[in-house]
C-alpha cells in the first residue's frame, strides 16, 4: 500500500527546466565553449554545486564556485518568481492524495532558498507534509538517495510504501537507490531523458485521479 508520494520540483511541480535552458543557453556557451544539447541532458537533475563540478571536470571553467552560485541565484529569481507556472492538475492531485490519508512531500536538489520561492509563490505549504532541499542533504543531492530518504523520514513512511515522481534519469536513480516505486513524468521538454528505470510513466497531472495513481503504483 502506498502511504506517501514524493515529488521532484524542477520539471515536475513547475516547468523550470525549460526556463533555465532558455535563459542560460548563451551564458553556458560563453562559460564552456563546446556546451551543447547533450550537456543539457546530462546536467538535468543536478544540484547547483554538482553542476559547477560538472562544468569544471568537463570544460575546466575558471570561475569560482561562489561566482557561479551568485549568477545562478540571480537567474533563479527570474525563473521562479516570474517565469514558471505550476504544473496543471498538481493542486487537485495533491488534495486528492491527502484526502485519502496519503502523505505528500517534495524532494529537490535545488537550494532551499529556491524551493521557498516556489512554495511561497504558489502557496504549496498546505499541500505538502514535508520538504527536503539540497541544504538538508549535506551535499549528497541526487543521484544519491539522501533527499528522498530524508523526506520519507519526515513523514514517517518507509521507502517500500512510497512513490517518487521524477522527470530526469538522475532523479530516478536517486529514488531507485532509496528503494521507492518510481513514476517518470513526461513534461514535454524531457524527451531526451532515459526514464526507463521507472515503473511507469505519467503524461501529466491534469485529470489524474489520486486513486488511479495509487493503484498504478501499487501494481508496479
Highlighted features:
220 residues; 2 domains; single chain; 6-stranded parallel β-sheet; Rossmann fold; alpha/beta; globular
Explain what the structure shows:
This protein is an alpha/beta fold and 220 residues long. It is 47% helix and 11% strand. The protein folds into 2 domains: 4-15 and 85-219, 3-Layer(aba) Sandwich (Rossmann fold); 16-83. It contains 9 helices and 6 strands, in the order βαααααβαβαβαββα. Helix 4 (65-83) runs parallel beside helix 6 (112-121).
Number of helices: 9
Residue ranges: pLDDT <50 for 5 or more in a row? none
Q: State the shape.
A: globular
Helical amount among residues, as a percent range? 40-55%
Number of strands: 6
The CATH class of the largest domain: Alpha Beta
Report strand %: 5-15%
* Largest sheet data: 6 strands, parallel
CATH architecture heading of the largest domain: 3-Layer(aba) Sandwich
> Order of strands across the widest beta sheet?
3-2-1-4-5-6
User: What is the mean predicted local confidence, pLDDT?
Assistant: 92
Helix-strand makeup class: alpha/beta
Looking at this structure, what is the CATH superfamily of the largest domain?
A: HAD superfamily/HAD-like
Could you tell me the CATH topology label of the largest domain: Rossmann fold
Topology:
Elements: E1 4-7, H1 16-31, H2 37-43, H3 48-59, H4 65-83, H5 90-99, E2 103-107, H6 112-121, E3 130-132, H7 146-155, E4 162-166, H8 169-178, E5 181-185, E6 200-202, H9 210-219
Helix pairs in contact: 1-4, 4-6
Quick overview of this protein structure:
The chain is an alpha/beta fold and 220 residues long. It is 47% helix and 11% strand. The chain has two domains: 4-15 and 85-219, HAD superfamily/HAD-like (Rossmann fold); 16-83.
